[in-house]
Amino acid sequence: MYQLRRKKNVKKVVPFTMMVVGTEGTGRTTFVNTLCNAPVLESSEVFDPSQAHVERPVQVKTYHAELEEDDGTRIALTVVDTPGFGDNIDNQACFKKIVEYLETQYDEVLAEESRIRRNPRFKDNRVHACLYFIEPTGHGLRELDIELMKRLAERVNVIPVIGRSDQLTPSELANAKKMTMEDIQHHEIPIYSFPYDNEEDDAETIQENTELKEMLPFAIVASTETVEIKGQRVRARKYPWGIVEVDNERHSDFLTVRSVLLGSHMADLKDITHDYLYENYRTEKLSSSVDNGRESRLLNPEDLANQSYILKEEQLAREEEKLREIELRVQKEINDKRLELTAREQELREIEARIARERSMEAESARLKTEPSEDGAAAEQQGDYHHDNDQGAEAAATNGENGHDDTTDESTNIKQEPE
């Protein structure tokens, strides 16, 4: 049974969708092609200086690739690219188009949920992560970056990266990371910062997420070209001053980003997308039939009314669930306190019993020390008594001897008188 289940899991393909956003020249295309180890994204068109005055609208294109990890896991990767972003003086239209794409994917899921008969072949195209490529200028974020990142962060997990970071010296890169994070914190941009729960997550997860958070923004070097180093072909960029290896963690955060997206944090990115970002959008949408002045093209008024009723029921259910969780937590705290009190009472009883035993042992020891001295005194008195008796006997014997001599003398004197 285990073997069959394992084979079935290997055949299952895990879907994952990511978006790449950044101005031209930040390394979006090279990164994706390096990630997939294949030419998935198209190279940018050659810029024509004669057309510089013509504004080019941003495009939203999707690409698909299937990857297989070392453990046999197959990933159906969808990449959403945004060529043309940042090329115009006024980029408000670019902001709107990119955000609308994200919201459209939410609308499709919402519309599917409102149907009585759902489509078993429905494909969820919600974007789980957005890699936002920052220009390697070493000066932090531009106003363009700040505004779009704020808008994107409401609909998708935004992960900031510095593209083509090999253009910066180590000190310049460290300063660029510092300034970028200061801008993000100052403007309160809610990026994906590898959250964790101190109570629920284990120490290893907390440490890993803490280290990843400290690495933000990631510094990426990507390349589809290979060079030979010590007899092995490795992906790298070759310069007159040296070689930058893509898969060397001392040179680039590429492997770390790949592991985060396609391995360690894929499930977390999906969970946050569904449980938090989508639910917030769904609540906003169902609270009103108009969202940000844009009527939904996928939901009719009847569907919205039904969904509003469902939303209220779900809100009540969530509130009841929260109350149950609070009751369980309070009951658990009470039980823990009772157990703690019982344990302390047991400890107190054991201490009292130990003290009583120690006192009993001390009293017994004192008694044993006292009894031998009393026996010795009695023995001494008995010895004195025998000694006195011995002296009396000796005196009597002496007197007896003296009396015998006197009698003899008197007898002798008497016998001599007749003469």
CATH architectural group of the largest domain: 3-Layer(aba) Sandwich
Helix percentage range: 55-70%
User: What percent strand?
Assistant: 5-15%
Strand order of the largest sheet: 2-3-1-4-5-6
CATH class category label of the largest domain: Alpha Beta
The largest sheet, given as strand count, sense and whether it forms a barrel, is: 6 strands, mixed
Query: What is the CATH superfamily label of the largest domain?
Result: P-loop containing nucleotide triphosphate hydrolases
Oligomer type: single chain
Highlighted features:
disordered N terminus, 2 domains, Rossmann fold, 419 residues, disordered C terminus, 3-stranded antiparallel sheet, 6-stranded mixed sheet
Write structural notes for this entry:
The chain has helices at 2-11, 28-36, 92-114, 143-153, 170-186, 203-215, 254-264, 266-287, 301-416, and strands spanning 13-21, 61-68, 74-81, 129-134, 158-163, 218-220, 226-229, 232-239, 242-245, 290-291, 294-295. With 419 residues, it is an alpha/beta fold. It has two domains: 2-299, P-loop containing nucleotide triphosphate hydrolases (Rossmann fold); 324-383. A six-stranded mixed beta sheet has the order 2-3-1-4-5-6, with helices on both faces. Strand 10 (290-291) and strand 11 form a beta hairpin. Helix 7 (254-264) packs across helix 8 (266-287) and helix 8 (266-287) packs across helix 9 (301-416). Mean pLDDT is 82; it is low at 1-9, 290-295 and 402-419.
